[in-house]
Recover the amino acids of this structure.
């Protein structure tokens, strides 16, 4: 039975407990950051930040909207990053059968920086990051060690508002739909993002283009076509 | 808190004002969102649109420092529209009391003011008494001198136009908030107020909170589930530290500090033990002698006897009417009147107002001992920017303190829950618990006195001191034990038995207790209730979200205080769906009631507000030094030169330090036209000493910023992310501009007033993050507490050509 996350951004207070818990659980070091006129820091995912809370603000019809989005890998049902990984270095990207977690293994070190870049670009949400120090491809690992030990992922465990939820996919889908129905009363434009193709389902209150670009990157027109294109490209490169 | 965190879920309306709860008390929002799920309206009144506002139904920006005008308007609205809970107001508050002839209010001033001392003669505000020594009353509330009529008159001036003009809040928004919140004036509805330093840190801080409490009384929101006046306190253990008297004006358990007016114990007891001639008034403070004697016994042990006044004479006495608050202490230090001392877990060089002055003041010391987990701006002041260590005479000792996870002990949370925390791992390096430092240092001081004598050794020599620092022993002693075999309340106790609960404390020396409020929390050997983690509850408690078997809470494990005000005079709950307590048959069921007496209407029944001498909620409060009713006054630094409610611009009793460095911008100063408010944030804790040394947190919030509106950005040519200089009459601070739609310029008396906001947690000991925002704020304070006015002062802002404090 695959697992899934349901992330209800209408409850998120951007406390960043999840962002910090993720680092702490993985004993990740930090990247140097600067204040750039936003609370969002580090600006994007890094090899030591598998989770970043995004802050987007708008004034729409005189009303202020501050949109929070705790970003992480979506653990796609049919992960494009795996399609590519399998082609380059089989076993570099695996999908855990029991949980559906998409995981990058030690073997990902065998991927060239360029291959890593390709994989990142084919990810509909631009998630994977190559760790220049270890050579590994990195991203959220669903806290697979915790989950296999019967615990909740670190980010879910720390979230006190009910924004982060984790469990059996079926339960999460049901919870997502129930929540959407409720949230729609206050936010008529609320929707679930790509619920069928991902195991990390986000509920957003505004149209998706009001969020940062990788939340809004629309995968449908891109997927098959882009995938084929991408496959040809490296072959060409190898040939050339 | 009168309530506890989980109880927030029971509210029908939540007014978050003077607090950024989601950011500073993140867990509170678990319960705020639960209430919202069940239909509660959540309102945030605050200058800045914050992470709290993002989750609220309504965010209303107001000009910092105008809360009383805003709430005064609400009070008028509630009275005029008859939205108050009449039964509650008539029976449970002092609305019917007749105020004596001495009280008068004219043009912003109450009667009895002495301009020379800036003090009121509070006796002028006393109630009119009848021949039995009880306050005269008019139950019809019609007498023009009754509290209700005076209250009505007081806030009659706070009309929508004037409130809107001074607060900068549109009339439409005022009405939205008033309507939504006043709707909780019904018996089966409850509204809660969540506040924090945004209410307290003003020169009218105490009166901000009083007016909030008065509105809660009018709406019948005190004592009930989902109601209350809730000071949000947190990780710094503010609840525990006030209970145990880290403030100068009280001893543990909220007992006044001795003054020279009370040279003997007898004088002290006479001056501090209120009497009531009303048999229905519990007048709890009538028990004070038991608590104070037990405290003296805890301090001086066998040396304290009835014959020597339990060593009361050995306590230091302050001069009456003299302020010893920390702002005054640093003023004295700056003036060279302090030689040295100890600073534990506090970073005044960063977190006190006007830190230029504080940093200078520290250089006047001969010695300074700092107990800290990190080297803070206070510990390192001798090498602070602009100071050559060679010029500093002060000898500085930094005692490395371990962190909470490295030691056993307790914390009292905001809901008054006393919770044990277990040591998780050994302290790093040579670091030690601060309690250990105090015990060991005092042991050596006592040895010195024993060997060498001294001018007045007794207060130190006669202390009942400790061999080693033992948190369990201190917890036991905080509860207290019997000093001899005795019988109290018909029960026999043996010497050394723990006191079961504070009604068993005595004034004859047979009990010790370091804090009567906590008596009952460790009622028998091996029974430390702060260690309880039992989640069991009955159906009634489950509905309320009460966990009576989890930890322990003062007083006597009562989870909601003043709960006798949640039932009518026959003990029937106002809100039958969420009863806190109820009189069933011949006993109370539910939470621990405020005393076992039967409901008020019964023969032995008592009034609900047991801590007040008259037993009633105080709509009229003659105990505050700046007036029995809150009145709007402008902050010490204000962008306006007048306000609509009176000619008195600022609080007449305001505390202002008077050193040469203490300068203030004049009202409406054109050089400093912008209002600055300062605050914390989720990622950093207080002055930042701990969290700036926690890499993951510094990564998330790396540098000092200033939040400002897009309109102000345009006016000043400042773009998002630009380095800027913020300047007040006292100093300059570099920061990065956060130009945002979340800040809104306000229209105040027809003119645009800009507000900016800055966190205060960044300091120079962490390189490149910026330095103290408090270099901008003034040393002025509230007259009741001397809490500094951090929340409103005047500044200007400009784009910086280059910055030196911030890494770029
Ligand atoms: S922990 Fe929860 S509330 Fe906090 S930022 Fe993450 S998702 Fe949002
Ligand atoms: S979100 Fe990207 S990285 Fe994560 S599984 Fe899908 S394709 Fe792979
Ligand atoms: S599931 Fe684990 S790895 Fe993934 S974002 Fe959450 S804490 Fe980080």
């Amino acid at each position: 039975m695959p697992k899934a996350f349901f992330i209800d951004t209408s409850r998120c207070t951007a406390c960043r407990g999840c962002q910090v818990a993720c680092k702490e659980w993985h004993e990740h070091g930090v990247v140097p950051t600067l204040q750039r006129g936003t609370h969002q820091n580090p600006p994007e995912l890094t090899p030591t930040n598998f989770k970043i809370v995004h802050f987007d603000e708008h004034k729409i019809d005189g009303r202020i909207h501050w949109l929070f989005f705790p970003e992480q890998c979506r653990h796609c049902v049919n992960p494009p990053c795996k399609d590519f990984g399998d082609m380059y270095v089989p076993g570099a990207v695996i999908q855990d059968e029991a949980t559906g977690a998409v995981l990058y293994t030690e073997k990902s070190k065998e991927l060239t920086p360029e291959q890593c870049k390709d994989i990142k670009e084919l990810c509909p949400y631009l998630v994977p990051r190559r760790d220049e120090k270890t050579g590994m491809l990195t991203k959220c690992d669903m806290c697979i060690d915790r989950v296999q030990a019967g615990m909740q992922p670190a980010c879910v465990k720390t979230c006190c508002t009910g924004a982060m939820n984790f469990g059996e996919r079926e339960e999460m889908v049901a919870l997502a739909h129930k929540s959407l129905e409720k949230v729609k009363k206050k936010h008529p434009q609320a929707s679930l993002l790509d619920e069928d193709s991902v195991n990390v389902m986000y509920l957003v209150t505004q149209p998706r283009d009001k969020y940062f670009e990788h939340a809004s990157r629309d995968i449908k027109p891109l997927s098959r076509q882009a995938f084929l294109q991408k496959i040809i490209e490296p072959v060409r490169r190898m040939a050339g | 808190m009168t309530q506890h965190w989980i109880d927030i879920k029971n509210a029908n309306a939540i007014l978050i004002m003077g607090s950024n709860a989601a950011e500073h008390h993140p867990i509170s929002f678990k319960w705020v969102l639960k209430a919202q799920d069940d239909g509660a309206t959540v309102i945030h009144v605050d200058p800045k649109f914050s992470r709290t506002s993002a989750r609220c139904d309504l965010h209303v920006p107001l000009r910092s420092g105008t809360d009383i005008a805003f709430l005064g308007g609400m009070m008028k609205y509630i009275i005029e529209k008859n939205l108050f809970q009449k039964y509650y107001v008539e029976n449970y508050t002092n609305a019917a009391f007749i105020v004596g002839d001495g009280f008068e209010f004219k043009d912003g001033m109450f009667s009895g003011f002495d301009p020379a001392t800036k003090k009121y003669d509070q006796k002028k505000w006393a109630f009119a008494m009848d021949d039995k020594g009880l306050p005269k009353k008019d139950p019809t509330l019609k007498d023009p001198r009754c509290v209700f009529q005076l209250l009505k008159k007081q806030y009659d001036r706070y009309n929508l136009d004037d409130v809107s003009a001074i607060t900068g809040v549109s009339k439409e928004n005022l009405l939205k908030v008033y309507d939504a919140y006043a709707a909780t004036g019904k018996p089966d509805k409850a509204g809660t107020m969540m506040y924090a330093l945004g209410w307290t840190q003003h020169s009218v801080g105490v009166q901000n909170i009083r007016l909030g409490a008065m509105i809660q009384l009018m709406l019948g929101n005190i004592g009930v589930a989902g109601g209350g006046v809730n000071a949000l306190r947190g990780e710094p253990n503010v609840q525990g530290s006030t209970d145990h008297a880290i403030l100068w004006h009280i001893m543990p358990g909220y007992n006044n500090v001795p003054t020279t007016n009370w040279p003997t114990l007898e004088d002290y007891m006479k001056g501090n033990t209120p009497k009531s001639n009303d048999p229905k008034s519990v007048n709890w403070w009538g028990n004070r002698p038991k608590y104070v004697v037990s405290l003296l016994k805890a301090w001086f042990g066998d040396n304290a006897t009835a014959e020597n006044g339990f060593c009361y004479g050995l306590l230091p006495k302050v001069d009456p009417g003299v302020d010893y608050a920390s702002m005054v202490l640093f003023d004295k230090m700056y003036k060279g009147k302090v030689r040295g001392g100890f600073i534990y877990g506090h970073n005044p060089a960063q977190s006190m107002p006007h830190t230029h002055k504080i940093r200078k003041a520290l250089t006047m010391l001969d010695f300074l001992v700092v107990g800290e987990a990190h080297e803070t701006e206070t510990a390192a002041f001798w090498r602070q920017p602009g100071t050559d260590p060679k010029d500093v005479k002060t000898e500085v000792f930094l005692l490395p303190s371990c962190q909470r996870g490295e030691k056993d002990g307790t914390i009292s949370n905001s809901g008054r829950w006393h919770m044990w925390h277990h040591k998780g791992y050994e302290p790093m390096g040579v670091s030690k618990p601060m309690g250990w430092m105090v015990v060991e240092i005092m042991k050596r001081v006592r040895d010195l006195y024993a060997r060498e004598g001294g001018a007045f050794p007794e207060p130190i020599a006669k202390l009942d001191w400790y061999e080693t620092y033992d948190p369990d022993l201190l917890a036991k002693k905080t509860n207290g034990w019997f000093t001899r075999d005795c019988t109290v309340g018909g029960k026999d106790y043996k010497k050394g038995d723990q006191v079961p609960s504070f009604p068993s404390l005595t004034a004859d020396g047979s009990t010790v207790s370091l804090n009567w409020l906590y008596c009952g929390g460790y009622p028998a050997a091996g029974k430390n209730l702060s260690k309880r983690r039992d989640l069991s509850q009955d159906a009634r408690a489950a509905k309320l979200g009460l966990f009576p078997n989890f930890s322990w809470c003062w007083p006597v494990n009562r989870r909601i205080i003043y709960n006798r005000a949640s039932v009518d005079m026959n003990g029937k709950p106002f809100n039958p769906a969420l009863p806190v307590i109820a009189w069933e048959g011949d006993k109370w069921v539910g939470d621990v009631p405020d005393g076992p007496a039967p409901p008020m209407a019964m023969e032995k029944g008592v009034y609900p507000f047991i801590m007040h001498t008259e037993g009633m909620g105080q709509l009229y409060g003659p105990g505050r030094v700046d007036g029995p009713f809150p009145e709007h006054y402008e902050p010490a630094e204000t962008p306006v030169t007048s306000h609509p409610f009176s000619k008195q611009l600022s609080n007449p009793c305001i505390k202002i330090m008077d050193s040469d460095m203490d300068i203030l911008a004049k009202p409406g100063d054109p050089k400093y036209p912008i209002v600055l408010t300062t605050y914390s944030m989720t990622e950093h804790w207080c002055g930042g000493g701990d969290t700036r040394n926690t890499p993951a947190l510094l990564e998330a919030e790396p540098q000092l910023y200033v939040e400002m509106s897009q309109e102000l950005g345009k006016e000043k040519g400042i773009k998002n992310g630009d380095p800027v200089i913020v300047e007040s009459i006292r100093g300059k601070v570099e920061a990065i501009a956060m130009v945002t739609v979340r800040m809104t310029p306000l229209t105040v008396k027809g003119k645009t007033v800009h507000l900016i906001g800055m966190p205060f947690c960044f300091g120079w000991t962490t390189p490149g993050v910026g330095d103290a925002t408090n270099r901008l704020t003034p040393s002025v304070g509230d007259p009741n507490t001397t809490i500094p006015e951090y929340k409103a002062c005047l500044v200007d802002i400009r784009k910086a050509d280059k910055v030196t404090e911030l890494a770029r």
Observations:
- The longest strand of chain B covers residues 732-740.
- The CA atoms of residues 53 and 59 of chain B lie 5 Å apart.
- Chain B has a mean pLDDT of 97.
- Chain B touches chain A at residues 22-23, 26-27, 29-30, 33, 37, 49, 51-55, 59, 682-683, 695-705, 720-722, 736-742, 806-808 (CB under 8 Å).
